[in-house]
Amino acid sequence: MSTPTPKIEIASQLLDSALRHFFSEPPEYFAAICLAGAAEEILGKHVESKGGESSFNSMKNGAVLISQFLEGEPTTEKAIHNLMNKAKNSTKHMNGSADSTIDFEPKAEAKDLLDRAVTNYYQLMGHYELKETDLLTRFNNELNT
Description:
It is a single chain. The chain is an all-alpha fold and 145 residues long. It has a domain of 84 residues. It is globular, with a radius of gyration of 16 Å.
């Protein structure tokens, strides 16, 4: 008989694994992208279930507002959503033989996804027994200073 596993625990493991892949030698950015993307999504849903705004929605909404000032009218939420998730989706899906390569900077995209996941994780620390790990501290110290 299986034992139920809380999704917050799954998301925490995914985030930890993503950070390990990001900091491994050599770095494994594509694995970090997939794992951080999954963690970010689950953690974001938990943030929203607690009445907060996920880091994804916060960034998306800010980008829509900024686009209004830069372009005179706002870019659609869907366009921003697709752009923000391009790396995550293009590394886990292949839409036919013409879609056989990616064209983005893997380190930068992994860092962006990790940043969103880590932000959600910190928002949830007051609601769950989540710990500040050495990898979280390293990510914050090395990449967000």
